[in-house]
Specification:
This protein has about 170 residues and is an alpha+beta fold. It has one domain: Cyclic Phosphodiesterase, Chain: A (Alpha-Beta Complex), CATH 3.90.1140.10. The chain is built from four helices and eight strands; from the N terminus they run ββαββαβααβββ. The strands form two sheets. Strands 2-1-7-8 form a four-stranded antiparallel beta sheet. A hairpin with a 7-residue loop joins strand 3 and strand 4. Helix 1 packs across helix 2.
Length: about 170
C-alpha cells in the first residue's frame, strides 16, 4: 500500500481552488510501497519518535514551490512556528525507521503543507500568479496544535487522493 506518516493541520479554505486538493496534513515520511506485515514496525517507530516529543504549536505562513517558483511542480505553505520541533520529530522518526530496516532518506526534511500539484499548462499559469501575488508572501494560513502522529494510507483516485487514517500515536509519554 501507499502510506505516509503525518501530522494533521487545518486545510486552507481559500484562495486555493478545490480542484488542486490542498492537503490537511504535513507529511513526515512517505512509503511508496508499505507491505502490511511491516506496519507493526512502522507503529513501533512512531511510538519511539513520539515519546520524546511533547505537543507543540504550529503556524503555516507564506508560500513557495518545489523545485522553484519559475518551474513549480508543487506549491506549498511554509511552517514558521513549530518548524524546529517538526524537523526534530521527522529526524527521530527517520532514525527509528532505519533501525527497523527501512531505507534512509537522502533529502533533508523541509516542513511544508502542499497546497497544489501542478500538472497542466493552466495550473502552471495559476501557480505563477499565486506565487508572485504580494498578499501571498506573508499570508497566515492557520495555527494549530500538534499532539499526535498519524499513519495514513493513500489511495490514488481519478478525482484526487483519498487518505485513510490507520493509526494515531500521541506525542509525549501519555
Amino acid at each position: 500500500m501507499r502510506a505516509f506518516v503525518a501530522v494533521a493541520v487545518p486545510p486552507p479554505s481559500e484562495p486555493v481552488p478545490p480542484e488542486f486538493h490542498p492537503e490537511d496534513h504535513l507529511t513526515l515520511h512517505f512509503f511508496a510501497e508499505l507491505a502490511s506485515e511491516r506496519v507493526p514496525l512502522v507503529l513501533e517507530s512512531l511510538r519511539e519518535a513520539s515519546t520524546t516529543s511533547e505537543p507543540f504549536d504550529l503556524e503555516l505562513q507564506g508560500v513557495g514551490a518545489f523545485p522553484d517558483a519559475r518551474r513549480p511542480r508543487v506549491v506549498w505553505a511554509g511552517v514558521t512556528t513549530g518548524s524546529d520541533e517538526l524537523r526534530a520529530l521527522a529526524d527521530r522518526l527517520r532514525q527509528a525507521l532505519v533501525v527497523r530496516g527501512f531505507a534512509s532518506e537522502d533529502r533533508p526534511y523541509v516542513p511544508h503543507l502542499t497546497l497544489a500539484r501542478i500538472r497542466s499548462p493552466g495550473s502552471l499559469v495559476w501557480a505563477r500568479r499565486f506565487l508572485t501575488a504580494p498578499e501571498m508572501r506573508d499570508r497566515r494560513w492557520s495555527r494549530s496544535r500538534v499532539s499526535e502522529l498519524q499513519l495514513k494510507e493513500s489511495l490514488l483516485l481519478p478525482m484526487g487522493p483519498r487518505h485513510t487514517t490507520l493509526a494515531r500515536v500521541p506525542l509525549g509519554r501519555a
